[in-house]
TrEMBL record:
One of its GO terms (cellular component) is cytosol. Keywords: ATP-binding, Kinase, Nucleotide-binding, Transferase. Pfam families: Phos_pyr_kin (PF08543). SUPFAM superfamilies: Ribokinase-like. Residues 28-276 form the Pyridoxamine kinase/Phosphomethylpyrimidine kinase domain. The lineage of its organism: Bacteria, Pseudomonadati, Pseudomonadota, Gammaproteobacteria, Vibrionales. InterPro entries: HMP/HMP-P_kinase_dom, PM/HMP-P_kinase-1, Ribokinase-like. One of its GO terms (molecular function) is ATP binding. GO terms for biological process: thiamine biosynthetic process; thiamine diphosphate biosynthetic process. It comes from the Bacteria. Pathway: Cofactor biosynthesis; thiamine diphosphate biosynthesis. This is hydroxymethylpyrimidine kinase. It is an enzyme of class 2 (transferase).
Length: 286
């Protein structure tokens, strides 16, 4: 007896248009920070991530052993490729490695004018490795930071940007506020995670006319690789979804806190492991 298969019924699948968010940063071969962390964070928080790679690092949970900056013409061609095709509503900028790359990126940001720009001024890795040449810091301050909606320095990065000592207390964080405002970004999130003697991990959200202390629980884990990349990417993701800056920062802070809280569920590497970007499964984190 011959069996006849049912005719194939073609149905057009429904389509979605998630906000497209671009990360411009270095690659982390260990997968816990940089471009890899950015894409995970943007995806976990409900956006579509695209990328421009500025440098390739030889990196793992124990540190950075080599950095290879991408040739300038290829950084430029990557930027043109994504901006001329994709509807990019928010951009996160991380590791840029040197002054020439900073200038290329700044010129393209001015050319394409994305709606939102988040800059994580990556200078020092969690492991203590220097990721930005000293001579390039002034270029970052002059060419790129004034274009930002928000910058997200940690305490060593805040010190490098302002010339002040690394804060050892909330009072010393507050003493840095005026110098950070003078950099020209619309807002600053000064991250207090390096104050390890505090029971909480508190950040300062600094705007032109206000300073808000954002408190969060400090979790006892060594698995904090990529926290800065993850937080700034989540802020860009939430901005891209139409949230205002204040709400985006608070949602991103909630996301990174949970990613850290669940970090010990992962057993990755022999050093400082990554945070758990997908602690909530593949559902959007709201």
């Amino acid at each position: 007896m011959t069996q006849h298969s049912q005719p194939y019924s073609h149905q057009t699948p429904s389509t979605t248009t998630p906000p497209v968010v671009l990360t411009i940063a270095g690659s982390d071969s260990g997968g816990g920070a940089g471009i890899q962390a950015d894409i995970k964070a943007m995806s976990a928080t409900g956006s579509f991530a695209c990328s421009v790679i500025t440098a390739i690092t030889s990196q793992n949970t124990q540190g950075v052993s080599a950095i290879f900056p991408i040739p300038l013409d290829h950084v430029e061609s990557q930027l043109d490729a994504v901006f001329t095709d994709l509807n990019i509503v928010a951009v996160k900028i991380g590791m840029l490695a040197d002054a020439n790359i900073i200038n290329v990126v700044a010129n393209k940001i001015k050319q394409y004018q994305p709606k939102h720009l988040v800059i994580d001024p990556v200078m020092v890795a969690t492991s203590g490795d220097l990721l930005l040449e000293h001579a390039a810091i002034s270029t970052l301050k002059e060419a790129l930071i004034p274009l930002a909606d928000i910058i997200t320095p940690n305490l060593p990065e805040g010190a490098a940007l302002t010339g002040k000592p690394v804060p050892n207390s909330e009072a010393e964080m507050n003493a840095m506020i005026d110098d950070l405002r003078a950099l020209g970004a619309k807002a600053i999130l000064l991250k207090g995670g390096h104050l390890e003697n505090d029971d909480s991990s508190n950040d300062l959200l600094i705007t032109p006319d206000a300073v808000e202390l954002i408190r969060a629980t400090r979790f006892p884990t060594q698995n904090t690789h990529g926290t800065g990349c993850t937080l700034s990417s989540a802020i860009a993701s939430y901005l891209g979804q139409g949230n205002n800056l204040h709400k985006s920062v608070h949602l991103a802070k909630q996301y990174i806190s949970q990613a850290i809280a669940h970090a010990d569920e992962l057993d990755i590497g022999q050093g400082r492991g990554p945070v758990h970007h997908f602690f909530a499964g593949h559902a959007n984190v709201r």
